[in-house]
Amino acid sequence: MFLERLVAVGKIFQKYGLEAADTLKLFADVQEDPRFLANVLVIEVALDNNKFQAAPLPLQSYGEYRTEESPFGGKRKPRTDFFPDVNRGLGLPYVRPTSGNPRTPQGIYGVPVYPVYPKMWEGLDQSAAIGFFQGRLRRTEHLPRDFSEDEVGKLAALLAKTAATMEEKVGRDGNEGYGLVALTIPQDNGPYSYLEKAPLSGDREQVTVGESILYPGCYIVGNLSVLTDYFKASKIAEGAEKGTADRCRLCGQKEAVSTYSKAWSWLAPTWHPPFASRFKRGNKVTDIASAVGALCADCYLALAVGAGVFKEVSGLLPAWLRRELFLPVASAGGREVATGGRVQPIQGTILVLPLESRVTENGKLFKRALNRYRRKLPLRPQSRDRALAAITGIQATLPEELSSDHYRLSMIYFTESNADIHLRAVVEDVLPSVTAKLQEIIELALQYLIPIRRSLDLRADGRVVERYGSLPYLLVRAYGGSYLWTVLADVLHCRPLSRRRFAAGAAARMNGYVKEMLLGSGESARGLAWYSLREEVYYYALFRKFLLEYAEKILGMGGDVMSDWRDLLAMLTEESPEEMTFANPEEVGFAAGYLARRFGRWYYGKLEKDFMRHRVMTFGSDLRPEDIWKRALSRFQEYGAKLDLPISDDFRRRAAVVECEYRHLRPEIEKEKAEFMAAFWSGYALASPTDKNKNREDE
């Protein structure tokens, strides 16, 4: 299924979105890893009348080095970085192997352009240089003819001389030592030719490689269309290395080759899939055509384009989101301990798949939209372009032209390390309209809960807004990293979510923060725990609001949820006690928390002790609804009388109503303990001394 998606994407881009330069960027690694453009050795080869001539151009750098002072100042040395000229580099396209030993000849070379790694320059004398050329020339397609041993020796001598120069350069002025060795053989209608005038910068058809040595006054130029055709042929030859078949698995055409590609690590020969031994030699798959399937030339090239687009639009998930994946969902202490350190580099990709009938109607418009999507261009002012990072965690822009439900989105999440792929999740067939609705719901919830964040006295900087505006962050914190991908797929496919599991995690974390706040040692630790509790209360309110809006606007159904916090506070502070009513355990829990915090102020004023720590909390155990009822709610009157606390009559009446409601809903509370406790700590944190009934309590 995944191959079919890539082939479909590739065919769309081939038809509407790519010029020769664009295709070459996808097939080669010039844009993906441009470090090799830092040191370019071009050897000009002429074969006029079958007479061999070779001359090296001066060592070039397709780009420039820039030295910048450290932004941190102090004694840190200035940093020198290489800034490549990728467009010029397309004239010498290369593929960097993603598996095996990159210093040995691998795959099939479309043109004689060979990457060189830093340590390869060391000891590269003429003998080693001969081996360098022999292995690579054997794997290079479309050479005008084979080179004799004497001719290879001459090429090796030129390379060895440059290698000695490179050994001195490596490590100086920011030069890491990555480079290219290219043989250019200018010919009519070939990938390289001579021109008397260099092409203009930005030319989409021809690129300057360098000034000719053998023909002074001429320029060697790369013809991008021909280079692209050569690369296509080399790709197909590379696929054939791992098997052929009579028919394509997708379209049924004859003469199919395996899906293997050295440039794409997802089907590298070092992959260890659970295939039958007849397809393997040792641990390596040798017959990918039989094991995975074979594709005709058209489908194979579409796969190569689709894989290139896949790599181009892939990106890392933010570090703060990746870190959240590995935090314990129900442990407050575990979250605090595990917030630092390096996290796995999880990547994500969004593929856009249109309905073909729609595309053909607006080909030019669609082509511009595809290019905007592929290049991740910023949102256009006064347009309906949509940033998808808030919904998917992946930095991507969906142009307005692709945002209708005539298109489908597919999200792929994976980890890639040394050609080892760990596919974490694939979420397919997502409607763009659903992502738009989800973003609206999150933005509405954030806006709606601005007053609660202010009431809790919490910071509201850009990082906070970014995290709480992220759907994956909200989901992973609600359900845990183990369930993120499943729950994300449920949301994007408009399926119901579990409120109980979310409440259980939130309540467990709140109880953990409360233990540290009330029973921990050290003023600073207790202060941090109190802030973390308030932050958790805000998150609880935010996600509850999200669930409510999600149920109403996407699922088309209501839910048995707690009333709005502002309505509850108004009822607890403004309505008469006799008019107070509670519909479910959450509302009773909120009221109990509010009253406990209120009572705690009188208690502290009399004894200078925290009421919850002194009378309610038991060291080492989690607080339960039954504990709150037995040690607090049902004993406010008793504590007030014994300690002669100045409790107002209004408070006594309200406490009596809430205690009565607890008894009435006791069976439901036993079933919904987590919801009760999460709401209890919410009411506790939101019982601000500025509430309107403060004067009543002083009566």
Description:
With 699 residues, the chain is of the alpha+beta class. Helix 2 packs across helix 8 (297-313). The longest helix has 31 residues, at 523-553.
In brief, what are we looking at here?
The chain is of the alpha+beta class. It has 29 helices and 20 strands.
What general form does the structure show? elongated
Main sheet overview? 4 strands, mixed
Please report the distance between the alpha carbons of the first and last residues.
72 Å
Mean pLDDT, to the nearest integer, reads 86
Query: What is the share of helical residues?
Result: 40-55%
Please work out how many helical segments DSSP would assign. Answer: 29
The assigned structural class equals alpha+beta
Question: Uncertain runs with pLDDT below 50, 5 residues or more?
Answer: 690-699
Q: How big is the Rg?
A: 33 Å
Measured by DSSP, the beta-strand proportion falls in: 5-15%
Number of DSSP strand runs:
20
Describe the strand arrangement of the main beta sheet, using strand numbers: 2-1-6-5
Secondary structure layout:
Elements: H1 2-17, H2 20-27, E1 40-46, E2 53-56, E3 63-68, E4 79-84, H3 86-89, E5 113-116, H4 126-137, H5 149-169, E6 179-184, E7 192-195, E8 206-211, E9 219-223, H6 224-240, E10 244-247, E11 254-258, E12 280-281, E13 284-285, H7 288-291, E14 294-295, H8 297-313, E15 315-316, H9 319-325, H10 332-337, E16 346-354, H11 356-359, H12 363-375, E17 386-387, H13 389-392, E18 397-398, E19 407-417, E20 420-430, H14 432-448, H15 450-455, H16 462-468, H17 471-479, H18 484-492, H19 499-519, H20 523-553, H21 565-573, H22 585-607, H23 611-616, H24 625-631, H25 636-643, H26 649-664, H27 666-671, H28 673-686, H29 694-697
Parallel strand pairs: 1-6
Antiparallel strand pairs: 1-2, 3-4, 5-6, 7-9, 8-9, 10-11, 11-14, 12-13, 15-16, 16-19, 17-18, 19-20
Helix pairs in contact: 1-8, 2-6, 2-8, 4-5, 6-8, 14-20, 19-20, 19-28, 20-28, 22-26, 22-28
